[in-house]
Amino acid sequence: MKSLGWRALLVATCLVLIEAAVTAHPMTGKNATFVQGIQGPAVGPFLYLGAKHMVTGYDHLAFLVGVIFFLYRLRDVLLYVSLFTLGHSITLLVGVIGRVGVNPYLVDTIIGLSVVYKAFENMGGFERLLLIRPSTRIAVLVFGLFHGFGLASKLQEFELSPTGLIANILSFNVGVEIGQGLALSAVLVALGAWRSRSSFLRHAFATNALLMTVGFVLAGHQAVGYFLAGP
Amino acid sequence: MAQSASSPSRLRIVKATALALLVAAVLLVTAILPAEYGVDPLRTGRFLGLLALADAGPRAITPRDERYRSDTREFVLGPYEFVEYKYRMEQGGGMLYSWQATSSVISDFHSEPDGAAPGYAESFDKREGSQAHGVYQAPFPGVHGWYWENPALRDVRIRLHTSGFYSAAKEYTGGNIIDHAISDEQ
Q: How far is B45 from chain A (nearest CA, A)?
């Protein structure tokens, strides 16, 4: 049973990589005009854009809320967030530097499903319903890889100047981590305050069901976009 | 109560998952798809007035009712002289421009919004060089155009050609304002 879940994830990974190999899907973005005018390294603007994307990108935030929902010890929080960071940094760098054209709709659909997955896990779905226990660490790492492709596709909306490309991607990446740190701190404070009350466990299930709804909405929105836009 | 959170029954998990999927589907079909993509299977987007949102966005073509103009003008600037040449344009009015100078000049494309304090201008393109070409779309109604300055000791000849949606041309030199007829040559 356990290997079945992983096979599904593996298939999804392969699908995205195949998609990545055959499609290039440029989009127009809000900050595109500014970024396209940049020649050479621009650490500040890319730091800001990375942080802004993370703080305002509720898909990444929803996933992180799911990940740390039941993590009570700071050590665990750091471990899982590091795994997520490792995952998304790899694909962000590889995606942009290697000019991997991932379809943003497809990768954002999977990011939405990652929220569903995490919420389902928090609701005890895997253990009690499917009677499997997929590794939570590997799941965070693998979904981190998909989130990184999502970040890469956002950066690829811009026609990036090749001069200073590496410095700019790294700045964007560091900005993402800063934004993630800021958002996580806020979530941790809120969760910490809530956990001290008895209502936390009473509403934990419902909260994760709500998180799952958000995930389904995100995934559905992007999946329909994928079919409307065509590959 | 803690018990129910840590080990919910299988039925409860199935129900919650189904409900999450149902709520998401309803939100998507009734509001999100109509507003984001103009896909409106239940006509709820039309009812809620959401379809207009799907149409908004950058447009490749913006038809204008104004008269289409074109203009060519030449200026000769002596050592350290400057000139300003500007058009009256309405908001959203577009213009193609191209200018060339016989040697390097300092230029500044800037615009004065209607009703702004005297002397106030927004600068859009400052450069030093002997040519520039591009597209300008007026972000507000007002007068829009160039300042050129000859930074050297020899004379420089600047030739400007534009076409688009403007209604009047003015030249500013050392306190004088000259109204020019737009040439509208073919």
A: 15
Q: State residue B172 phi and psi, 5-degree precision.
A: -120, 120
At A72, phi and psi to the nearest 5?
-95, -30
Shortest alpha-carbon distance between residue A198 and chain B (Å): 8
The pLDDT value recorded for residue A215 is 93
ipTM score of the complex?
Answer: 0.71
- Burial degree of A109 (CB within 10 A; 0-12, 13-18, 19+): buried
What does the pLDDT look like over B39-84, one tens digit per residue?
888 888 888 888 777 776 666 778 888 899 999 999 999 999 999 9
Q: Judge if pTM exceeds 0.80.
A: no
- Nearest-Cα distance to chain A for B15, in Å, is 10
What structural domains does chain B harbor? 2-55 (no CATH), 69-180 (2.60.120.510)
CB A118 within 8 A of CB A66: yes
Chain B hits for A124, CB-CB cut-off 8 Å, are 6-8, 13
Q: Which residues of B touch A116 (CB under 8 A)?
A: 20
B118 DSSP 8-state letter: T
Q: Cβ of A69 under 8 Å from any chain B Cβ?
A: no
How do the domains of chain A map onto residue ranges?
A: 49-229
pLDDT of residue A37: 61
How high is the pLDDT of residue A210?
92
Task: Report residue A208 as tokens.
Answer: 């994760």
